[in-house]
Amino acid sequence: MITQKHKRQEKIFYEKNPQKIAVLDCEKLDFTLGRNIMKKIIIAMLITVMLTPAAFAKKKEKQPEQGIQYMNISWWEKYNDPILTEYQNRIYEKNPDLKIASLKVKESEKIVKISFANELPQLSFDGQLNRNFKSSDLYFGQMTIPSFKQSELQLPLTMSYEIDIWGTNRFRTKSIEKRLEMVKQDERASYIMLTSAFAADYFNLIRIDKLLELQKQIVDIQEEIVKKTEIKFKNGLCSKTDLLNEQKALTYLKEEYNNLEDRQTLLTNQLRAYLAAGADEQIKRSDYDSVSIPQGLPESFDSNVIENRPDYQRAESNIKRAGYNVKVARRDFLPKFVIFGQLGFNAYQFANLFNSPAQMASAGILPQFDLFTGGRKFAVLKLRKLEYDEAMQVYQKAILTAFQEVNDSLSMAHAAEKTYAEDVDRLKYQDEMFDLLTKKSKIGAASNLEVLYGTQAKLLTEKETVSGKINLLISSINIYKAVGGKDLYEISDL
Fold first, then answer.
1. Which range in 124-138, 349-363, 385-399 is most confidently predicted, on average pLDDT?
2. How many CA atoms lie within 13 A of 303 on its CB side?
3. Which residues in 167-306 belong to E strands, given as ranges?
4. Over residues 345-370, mean pLDDT
5. Taking the CB of residue 47, how many other CB atoms lie within 10 A of it?
């Protein structure tokens, strides 16, 4: 507490030592000026940050995970096969290719964040501790400073920001964002390709199961035919050539059976790979007779159906990305302006580090303009324009490919539908012929050997019907894949 006595003593002291008052006033003035300067610099930094265009950029909300939407489970449920739907969900959870595609998307998202961060002001702390050794005298005009040793302490906050007057950094970030959209379309394409390929192999495996069953019956019948032909040959009722022909036919049928078994093994192994299953895990599948064909599929599509395809959307994003790169290359010819500033403390002794004379502050604008780069910028601009032209050609190719694949898948589906209808009619006629042959056999008008031939012909026709049905199923999957993984019942007819 300051008493009146202390105040009188202080007044007498300063009256006797007026220079102390001047020193004190200067110190107060330096402290006040320093504090005001620091306030102004801090305000300037805050205003710079607030006026940064990137600061007003709308932060994108976190999107829900797209993978489960890419699976389009509602479409696969239309095949009325619970096992297929179960396996499609398992692919989503365990397939390594889909996980790799998802990781690439996440990597690209981080690259976008890095580019966005480069648009913002950069603030760093660059502390320094230096020990200076001056071994010779320093001359400043008539003044000489002898050799000395001293320490220097600096604790500054450094801020820098490139004023994006021309929007160069914003266009650069937009280009990277379009690259992210391209990677997302690659991910969606992976989902469509993998799920479609799995479903096709799954139905092919069901076909092989049924064909093996029929082929086994055909082989058994042929073995019976060979036995009866041998008896006829021993009794002199047929030639050696007839017997050899039947034996040769048996080898062909057995060879076909072996090929079907090999194909069954390959498909099973392939399905295990899709499911990331163990080598000994059994692959479940439905019975052939329970498989149903989706009914009421559209016979034609509007031309805008290709806009849902991943390759079309990827090519479209690629054009925009190339366009942004051209804008960036053009703006590189313009000058750049960088705001910089420092705020902190600078002292030669640690005890004085946080005193008012140790306060340091600096700020300014640094213009940058390249006078000569050896033609590099012109080459970069030309390169970006060529990349844009290439992107346009890729876009045109994507459109042509899309129309071709959609039209091809529709044509193949129509052909498969007609073929299956013919197979069904042929099997019906074959069944009627077999019934007549059976009746003739009962009255003794046909031999047992003829009945065996008739049964074999019926089974062969049934094999064709099985293949026709599965081909029609797979053709519907090809249409789904060609239109970009969209539910075919949601697409309008022409």
1. 385-399
2. 2
3. none
4. 80
5. 10
